[in-house]
Amino acid sequence: MMHLTNLKQDLEIRFPDTSHGDQWIINPFTCDLNTVKMNLKEKEQLIDLMSDESLRSIFKTTDLSKFWIMMEKEYPLLFKTSLLKLLPFASTYLCETAFSTLTAIKTKYRSRLNVEPDLRVSVSDNISPRINILTASVQAQGSH
Asked: Which InterPro entries match (predicted)?
């Protein structure tokens, strides 16, 4: 029992629960503004977002990550914060997907195959390149 208590304490130190002030990311239309941890400009953006009924209906029918990506131009501060909070889950998902794909491709009968090309294609089918960001960064480097 002592081992489990130590494990729990260790996990709480390594992964502190910071979700109390971030409930607005999960549902910006039902969060309590008194518990939200953000600066004044972010709160103003959140209040504006909460009062937009058209965005409320979009939120109900859209995936959480896609919703926040759609908010990039109109609510850039909220977008940036939500992206930073949601990004680790997407990264973990991709790692798990890659591992599952690798175990499916590389069985004991196919253990000598070079799986890297197949794995790359299998994992990257849902990732679309953001060419505009890439070209902007290359152009910025070229102008220096």
From this structure: HATC_C_dom (IPR008906), RNaseH-like_sf (IPR012337)
Render 56-118 in DSSP notation, one character per residue: HHHHHHS-HHHHHHHTTTTSHHHHHHHHHHHHHHHHHHHHHHHHHHHHHHS-TTSTTS--HHH
Categorize the per-residue pLDDT at 87 as very low, low, confident or very high, splitting at 50, 70 and 90: confident
Contact 115, 105 (CB under 8 A): yes
Enumerate residues 6+ apart whose C-beta is below 8 A from 26.
Answer: 64
The count of C-alpha atoms lying within 13 angstroms of the C-alpha of 110, restricted to the half-sphere facing its C-beta, is: 11
pTM attached to this predicted model = 0.53
At 16, the amino acid letter reads P
Of the two residues 129 and 79, the one the predictor is more confident about is: 79
Coil vs helix vs strand at 52:
coil
Position of tokens 């729990």? 8
